[in-house]
Amino acid sequence: MPAITLVGAQWGDEGKGKATDLVGNRVDYVVRYQGGNNAGHTVVIGDQKYALHLLPSGILSPDVVPVIANGVVIDPGVLFEELRGLQERGVDTERLLISANAHLIMPYHRALDKVSERFLGKGRIGTTGRGIGPTYADKISRAGVRVQDMFDPKILRQKIELALHDKNQVLTKVYNRRGLELEQIYDEYLGYAELIRPHVADTSLVLNKALDEGKTVYLEGSQGTLLDIDHGTYPFVTSSSPTSGGACAGAGIGPTRITKVVGILKAYTTRVGSGPFPTELLDEQGEWLRRQGGEYGVTTGRNRRCGWFDAPIARYATRVNGITDFFLTKLDVLTGLDRIPVCVGYEVNGVRHDEIPMTQTDFHHAVPVYEHFDGWKEDITHVRSFDELPKNAQAYVRTLEEMSGAPISAIGVGPGRDQTLELRSLV
Ligand code: IMP
Questions:
Q1: What angle, 0 to 180 degrees and rounded to 10, lies between the N-to-C axes of helices 182-196 and 76-88?
Q2: Any idea which fold 103-198 has?
Q3: What is the CATH number of domain 3-91+202-422?
Q4: What percent of the chain has pLDDT over 70?
């Protein structure tokens, strides 16, 4: 039975939490497969608003098993704080499963993330400062600490000691910071072992068995396609693979299991942090989009950079993820505009590009080529079917669909659970 993957089709913050919540009661497992608490999913249920960073959105649906799979990096302090916050609001968190193979964000990862960004100055990536990059770097260089290491005190101590051997050199000698204490970190992480133990499982085995039994597994990507370590605007990317291929490695399931890839696409574009963004609006129109769309980061509170819809980016997302369906979010934010510009290509040094240029240098110099579409003035937040949308809004959606290369199967017209038009089932 189906494994469905959900991916951000732009630079993250497309509204993935809302999409997961929409299908939450129709799936059996909701799995995070990459990233960590750099993510920020907002889910609005009735008058309650939940901001999740590390936990899968499925934790809010009582019949779903939420899973943090092997590809995720876990800051245990944040994990337990987030769990406690939900428990205090009456959410049952006992079902949560965590992979024994997931890597741990350690205090030195957070410290290094912050000092290296400061050191980069103007060239900084604009990371969330949560230690994501340094944790994945240690994973790849085979120096990481995994969830299962907390169950073997000797190994845990050895690994932290080994890591501190060079991290403290870098912190003190390169960055002129204070070194970190082995005993303090060891005691803290050993203390997490018994708290995390009831949740820890061979999540790859659990998910494959579930699929064999005909259950539906929903693989929830964080960040977005253009923040992917391979396919994003490197180096202004996150350190994991949010694209659909990453879902297989990050959850321990084979590609033949995935039957659907849902791309989440905002009706305009936003980005947090540094890096190229051709349609960015640095004038009052950008400010208008930010205000209308509430484009302030869930994780860091930073203003999001805002711009018009970029069709080559959507097409690129379709290509690298194999997107079968789009969920178009925040259409209501564009209400009130006379004309809506859509980027249909770029000009780079006088040369027209219909797709994202091959090199980052060219992408940095890409000047958007716009087509303009008629806007609408009617409030669409109460609309519940496609036919009820104003004609110009329908035409805008159809245009984006044509340009993006996959059908738009759902449309968001507001933040609430019920403010969604589902044109075709996403599950
Ligand atoms: P890191 O993931 O903290 O290393 O940050 C790397 C880049 O990804 C920065 O530009 C961040 O702003 C961006 N980023 C990380 N997580 C998110 C997210 O959930 N939404 C949007 N941008 C993100």
A1: 40
A2: Adenylosuccinate Synthetase, subunit A; domain 2 (1.10.300)
A3: 3.90.170.10
A4: 100
